[in-house]
Every structure is written in structure tokens, then in C-alpha cells.
């Protein structure tokens, strides 16, 4: 049996052991005939069922129900636990955790959180030290490769020009101003007008953003940006991403995914904040309350079941196919050429995005999730019918969204052929270049769309063979779509196969770029492809964009409807930092229970069990430190906070707002948190603050950082 199957179903067995030998033991650990039948079905599905059936079968235990025979019922928790940091849900927190939340508690939380490019950070010392994840920092240091950064003193810290930090310095209620502006214009325009006025009045170096905070309230968030950010600690990638893509988005997980930054002022001095999170000396215990703050990343959670069905049947499969092509092409390239750090990074990003996309697709195909989404919409319909005022405001929103989805489905063949307008960073930059040339004269073309396409191209990092593979996949999709039109197919391919034609186009454009021009030649294969695709793609994209604009407006109204039907609004999108709450808690999986913590023992055991394979190899300094480390120290933890907020660098805090960990990302079940929140199994995986202290002391010998973070406290090493 292929040992990779063990990982596919999360069997707790080393990769080199034949899985079949462990099956009798696995059966003995299960309780009840229902579970045995479930495992037998899983084995049968893995060995004999098709890909979609396998995904569906594996998905059932991932997402629910909690026990066989449970009734599928949408719950208030489906919307998530995403609260305003300006007005936290004090009654809820008092009821659930027996704690009092006042304005000082919320202000300390707001002032200590940092907004970094694409992730979150937290101030953790009076000298501007900040904690985030290695992944957040490493994406800006591709040239660093696999070498760790350990600064023994501030002078040794490494500058990161591409990294900046935004710190929230002020919040103000602007509800009245927005309501006044709304008398003359739409809501979005009113918010923009108020934001523009406040920005004009702000001090230099301040940035103002106005965001809705629920129940009709609006808040102006004022940030100060710090451009001088330096790395004090960045672990070797082999330990921060231990296990590679196989281990990503899984739990139990052993990895040291942290980074320490220092924030400097424009005068070149370390930031001296009045607010920062002290690390907890004791860490967290199972069942302890945990809080986190960060930027919400669940823009699809308000969407209807019909909208998510379109993502399931059309959008996600196309994205998966594109990512598979890119990952396969990058692997082939790296197998035959000297791999540069940017190329390795591109492959890691593609594989992680592919794993995430597959998990989201699996979730939306899962019968339990689909039933829960349908129940959620029906619950809203009932709430609207009970309230005539809400029915008048929102009664037709779900039906209007369903009508748009029906229209989108009629354009499905065009979507599969032409793709999204920009295609994203994982698509073909050559295809985008051809579209860009063709769209130069388009009246609907905007500067922002041009900038987004150019930025995506700059991030592509594709070599010729990789770009050829991506374009060939696009040409094959176009060939299938245009097949009845033999003349169009003939000009598109010029008598060549899609792969041959793609190579010809890439070579021609490379030659043109070598001559100092980015324009598409007026003849030859590139011109022929652009001529065939151009008008057809423009027509499709104009239709698709029109539908998408209308859908976005309706989705915002749907989000308002869902909030209006609830006593406590849930804020799933926007740029303002939000609060989430939960507990340190394991969860059921694979017929057993995932523990709330993993320890350093597990890290070394996985390294041994996998025989030191490349993805599971430890850096030399971790090998040497093995005997010095207290291997019972917690290394990672899981908490039931909402992963839409608690992700990629968000702090994990106790009731006293002491740091107990840093969020790295969701477990595989939590990837579906983009659509709904299922607290039974969705978890945020983070690095435990005790593991951070142990590694700084025993592995890196970073005594100065230990003193700064923990006030000289060090783990007890007495016999």
C-alpha cells in the first residue's frame, strides 16, 4: 500500500511502516461498532472509490456531525466569533468566562496589536520587540534561503525593506458623520467621504480608515506606520515549516513557526510603546480561555448557499486545476535545474495554496456542510418573515443572489476557458500579457486593474518551461471551448498542439522583451492567440464583472441582514482589527482525539520516525540542542478561537492579556472557516510561548532576547 495514504487519512503511523500492519491495532482502539463500520467504509473508499467519492468520504469525519446520527441544524455559531475591538461583547465574555471587560482592557489589546503586510504581529516588549510567524517574515526574505537569523544584539538585526508595521494609535466614533453624509449619497461613498476628510486633517505619518462596527456604528481607525522593521530572530525554514506541505494545515503538528522583529522609529531608535503583551510565565492549560486579535479573513462567510455552490462547482475546481498545473511544472523545473530561493518559495506557495483549495472544495462538497449552509439561509428567511421591517429591507436579497448564480452558471464554459480577468499570481503571466495588450483600448480598463495585473506578473517568478506549461493548460481550455469554431481553433493553435503553441508564444515574447519592449508583436503566434482570445475574453469578462459587482452589493446587504437578525453582530470582513475568543481544547479526529498541546518530544520523534527525510530533517543546531532541551515542554497548541481572526501571527492571550502563544494558521478543518464556523473541529494552531522560551534558551542561546521577553525568567533545569 502506498504509505502516502496514511497521511491522506491522517493515520497516526510513520511513513515507512506499512499501513496495513497497523490497521488491526487501529481497529482495536476504536469504540463501538458504528466507528468500526465507518473505518471499514473509509478503507473501502480509499482503495476503490473515485476521487470525488474519496474526498466526500474523508470529509465526513472532518466536518461533522459530531457523532453518527446527529441532526444537521444551523446554529448561531456558524457566523463565527468575530467581535469589535472598540465595543467587545462584554456580556458574552462575562457569561462564558466569568470576566469583566472594560475600556482599558480593550484599549490595551488594540494598542498592542500590529498590522503587517498580509499578516498580524504583536508588541511584546518595552523596546519595540514584536512577535509574528516565520512564514510572515520569510516571504520578504527569499534570498535568505534556509539560513536562520539570530541577532545577539540590536546591531546584528537584519533590515527588511519590504516589511512595515502599522500600529493603531487612535479610534473615534464617526457614526453621526457617516449618517449625515449618507443623506446625500450611498453608504460606500459616505464612508469614503468621511475617511477622506479625516485623512486630510490627520497628522503626517498617520493613516485613517473608517469601518463599520456593527449595529449601525462606524469607527475611524488611525494608524501610524513604521517603515524600519528589523529581524531579531528568524528560525531556519526546516524547523519553521517542519514537514513541508505534508504537515501544513494539519495537527498534531511539530514546528517552531515564530519570528521576532524590532520596530524602529523614523529617528532610528527602537519603538518604546506604552502598551505591549507580557509573555505568560506559566503558559496555558487545557480548557483555559484564549483571546486573539487580528484582521478578519472570512469574506465569504456571509455568502448564501447558492453563492457557495457556484464556488464549489465552478470557481474552486478551476483554481485547483490551475494550481496543479503550476505545482507540477515547478516540481519538474526544480528536478532538472539549480533551484533558486525564489523558485523554491514559488513551489511552496503553490503547494500550500493547492492544499488549501482542495480542502475548501472538499468542505463545500461535504453533505453535512452543505446541509448546514442551506439551514443557515432558511434560518435567516424565517427571521425575516417574523420581522416585517427586516422583511421590507432584506426580503429579496437571497432570491436576487440566487438569480445571479443561475446566470453565472450559464457562463460556466466561458469561465473555464477564459478564467478570471486577472488570473491571480498562480496563473499564466503570458496569458495576462496577451489580455493586457488586447485590453489597452478597452473603455472599462482602469489603472487599478492594470496595476493588479502588473503586480501579479512581478510575483510570478516563472521560468520559461513553467510559463509554457501554464499557458499550454490555458490554450487547451480555450481549444475545448472553441472546438465547434474550426477556424478560430486553427488560428489559435496554428496546427500545433497546445504545448507546442505555448512554447512558440513564450519564445516569441521572450525575444520581444529582450529587445526592450513589452508590447505583443503584431504578427506571429502571440498575435494570432491574442486575436482569437481578445474580443471573446473581453466580452466574457465584461459580463462576469457586471455580475460580480451586483453580487458584491447584494452580499453586503446579506451580511447586514445576517447581523440584523442576530443580537450580537459578527464582523467577517474589513481592514479593522477584530477580537475572537475560545478555549485551549483538542478535538475529535480519525476515531480519536487530538491533544490540546504537542511537546518537543513529538518534534524529535517525527524526525526519527521519518528517518530524517528532507522535509522532516532538523537543522544542525536543533540536533545539537536535543540533549539540552526539556522535551516535555509544550511546543504547539490548538484553541477554538475563530481562525478568520486568529491567523498568521495573531497573538494568543489569556484573560489578563498575557501572551500564551502565536497563531500560525488553521488545522485542515479550519480551512473551511472561509465559509462558516464549526467550533466542534475547527481550530487555530499556534506556537506555545513555553516552546519559544525553551528554543531561545537551549537552541539559539539568545540570552538577551530571553531576558527582554521574560524578564530574566528561565526554565527550571534543576534535576
Automatic annotation (TrEMBL):
<dbReference type="GO" id="GO:0043171">
    <property type="term" value="P:peptide catabolic process"/>
</dbReference>
<dbReference type="Pfam" id="PF10459">
    <property type="entry name" value="Peptidase_S46"/>
</dbReference>
<keyword id="KW-0031">Aminopeptidase</keyword>
<feature type="region of interest" description="Disordered">
    <location>
        <begin position="437"/>
        <end position="463"/>
    </location>
</feature>
<keyword id="KW-0732">Signal</keyword>
<dbReference type="InterPro" id="IPR009003">
    <property type="entry name" value="Peptidase_S1_PA"/>
</dbReference>
<dbReference type="GO" id="GO:0070009">
    <property type="term" value="F:serine-type aminopeptidase activity"/>
</dbReference>
<dbReference type="InterPro" id="IPR019500">
    <property type="entry name" value="Pep_S46"/>
</dbReference>
<keyword id="KW-0378">Hydrolase</keyword>
<keyword id="KW-0645">Protease</keyword>
<feature type="region of interest" description="Disordered">
    <location>
        <begin position="565"/>
        <end position="584"/>
    </location>
</feature>
<feature type="coiled-coil region">
    <location>
        <begin position="320"/>
        <end position="374"/>
    </location>
</feature>
<keyword id="KW-0720">Serine protease</keyword>
<comment type="function">
    <text>Catalyzes the removal of dipeptides from the N-terminus of oligopeptides.</text>
</comment>
<dbReference type="GO" id="GO:0006508">
    <property type="term" value="P:proteolysis"/>
</dbReference>
<dbReference type="GO" id="GO:0008239">
    <property type="term" value="F:dipeptidyl-peptidase activity"/>
</dbReference>
<feature type="compositionally biased region" description="Polar residues">
    <location>
        <begin position="443"/>
        <end position="463"/>
    </location>
</feature>
<protein>
    <recommendedName>
        <fullName>Dipeptidyl-peptidase</fullName>
        <ecNumber>3.4.14.-</ecNumber>
    </recommendedName>
</protein>
<keyword id="KW-0175">Coiled coil</keyword>
<comment type="similarity">
    <text>Belongs to the peptidase S46 family.</text>
</comment>
Amino acid at each position: 500500500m502506498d504509505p502516502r495514504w496514511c497521511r491522506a487519512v491522517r493515520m497516526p503511523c510513520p511513513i515507512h511502516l506499512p499501513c496495513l500492519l497497523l490497521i488491526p491495532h487501529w481497529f482495536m482502539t476504536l469504540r463501538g461498532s458504528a466507528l468500526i463500520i465507518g473505518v471499514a467504509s473509509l478503507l473501502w473508499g480509499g482503495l476503490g472509490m473515485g476521487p470525488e467519492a474519496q474526498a466526500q468520504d474523508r470529509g465526513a469525519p472532518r466536518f461533522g456531525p459530531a457523532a453518527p446520527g446527529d441532526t444537521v441544524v444551523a446554529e448561531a455559531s456558524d457566523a463565527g466569533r468575530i467581535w469589535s475591538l472598540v465595543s467587545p461583547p462584554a456580556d458574552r465574555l462575562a457569561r462564558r468566562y466569568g470576566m469583566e471587560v472594560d475600556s482599558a482592557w480593550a484599549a490595551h489589546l488594540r494598542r498592542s496589536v500590529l498590522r503587517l503586510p498580509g499578516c498580524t504581529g504583536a508588541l511584546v516588549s518595552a523596546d519595540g520587540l514584536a512577535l509574528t510567524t516565520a512564514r510572515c517574515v520569510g516571504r520578504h526574505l527569499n534570498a535568505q534561503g534556509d539560513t536562520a537569523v539570530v541577532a545577539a544584539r540590536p546591531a546584528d538585526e537584519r533590515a527588511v525593506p519590504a516589511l512595515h508595521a502599522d500600529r493603531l494609535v487612535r479610534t473615534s466614533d464617526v457614526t453621526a458623520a457617516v449618517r449625515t453624509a449618507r443623506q446625500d449619497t450611498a453608504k460606500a461613498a459616505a464612508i469614503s467621504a468621511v475617511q477622506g476628510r479625516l485623512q486630510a486633517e490627520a497628522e503626517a505619518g498617520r493613516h485613517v480608515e473608517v469601518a463599520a462596527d456593527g449595529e449601525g456604528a462606524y469607527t475611524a481607525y488611525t494608524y501610524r506606520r513604521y517603515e524600519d522593521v528589523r529581524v531579531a530572530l528568524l528560525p531556519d525554514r526546516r524547523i519553521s515549516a517542519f514537514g513541508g506541505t505534508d504537515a501544513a494545515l494539519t495537527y498534531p503538528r511539530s514546528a517552531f513557526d515564530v519570528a521576532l522583529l524590532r520596530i524602529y522609529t523614523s529617528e532610528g531608535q527602537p519603538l518604546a510603546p506604552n502598551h505591549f503583551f507580557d509573555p505568560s510565565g506559566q503558559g496555558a492549560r487545557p480548557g483555559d480561555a484564549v483571546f486573539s486579535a487580528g484582521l478578519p479573513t472570512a469574506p465569504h462567510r456571509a455568502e448564501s448557499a447558492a453563492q457557495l455552490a457556484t464556488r464549489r462547482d465552478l470557481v474552486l475546481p478551476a483554481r485547483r486545476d490551475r494550481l496543479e498545473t503550476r505545482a507540477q511544472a515547478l516540481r519538474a523545473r526544480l528536478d532538472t535545474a539549480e533551484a533558486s530561493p525564489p523558485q523554491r518559495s514559488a513551489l511552496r506557495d503553490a503547494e500550500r495554496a493547492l492544499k488549501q483549495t482542495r480542502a475548501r472544495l472538499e468542505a463545500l462538497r461535504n453533505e453535512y456542510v452543505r446541509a448546514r449552509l442551506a439551514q443557515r439561509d432558511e434560518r435567516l428567511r424565517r427571521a425575516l418573515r417574523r420581522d416585517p421591517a427586516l422583511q421590507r429591507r432584506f426580503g429579496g436579497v437571497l432570491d436576487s443572489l440566487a438569480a445571479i448564480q443561475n446566470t453565472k452558471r450559464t457562463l460556466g464554459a466561458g469561465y473555464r476557458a477564459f478564467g478570471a480577468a486577472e488570473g491571480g499570481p498562480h496563473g499564466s503571466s503570458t496569458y495576462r500579457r496577451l489580455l493586457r495588450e488586447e485590453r489597452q483600448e478597452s473603455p472599462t480598463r482602469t489603472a487599478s486593474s492594470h496595476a493588479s495585473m502588473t503586480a501579479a506578473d512581478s510575483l510570478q517568478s516563472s521560468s520559461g518551461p513553467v510559463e509554457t506549461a501554464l499557458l499550454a493548460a490555458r490554450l487547451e481550455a480555450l481549444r475545448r471551448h472553441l472546438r465547434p469554431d474550426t477556424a478560430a481553433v486553427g488560428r489559435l493553435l496554428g496546427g500545433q498542439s497546445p504545448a507546442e503553441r505555448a512554447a512558440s508564444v513564450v519564445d516569441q515574447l521572450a525575444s520581444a522583451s529582450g529587445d526592450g519592449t513589452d508590447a505583443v508583436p503584431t504578427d506571429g503566434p502571440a498575435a494570432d492567440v491574442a486575436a482569437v482570445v481578445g474580443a471573446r475574453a473581453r466580452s466574457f469578462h465584461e459580463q462576469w464583472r457586471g455580475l460580480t459587482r451586483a453580487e458584491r452589493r447584494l452580499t453586503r446587504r446579506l451580511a447586514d441582514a445576517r447581523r440584523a437578525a442576530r443580537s450580537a453582530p459578527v464582523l467577517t470582513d474589513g481592514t479593522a482589527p477584530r477580537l475572537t475568543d475560545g478555549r485551549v481544547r483538542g478535538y475529535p479526529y480519525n476515531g480519536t482525539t487530538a491533544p490540546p498541546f504537542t511537546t518537543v518530544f513529538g518534534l524529535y520523534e517525527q524526525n526519527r520516525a521519518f528517518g530524517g527525510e528532507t522535509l522532516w530533517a532538523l537543522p544542525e543546531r536543533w540536533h545539537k540542542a536535543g540533549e539540552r532541551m526539556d522535551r516535555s515542554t509544550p511546543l504547539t497548541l490548538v484553541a477554538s478561537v475563530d481562525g478568520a481572526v486568529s491567523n498568521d501571527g495573531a497573538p494568543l492571550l489569556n484573560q489578563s492579556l498575557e501572551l500564551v502563544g502565536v497563531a500560525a494558521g488553521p488545522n485542515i478543518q479550519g480551512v473551511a472557516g472561509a465559509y462558516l464556523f464549526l467550533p466542534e473541529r475547527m481550530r487555530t494552531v499556534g506556537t506555545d510561548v513555553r516552546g519559544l522560551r525553551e528554543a531561545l534558551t537551549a537552541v539559539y542561546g539568545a540570552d538577551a532576547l530571553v531576558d527582554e521577553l521574560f524578564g530574566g525568567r528561565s526554565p527550571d533545569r534543576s534535576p
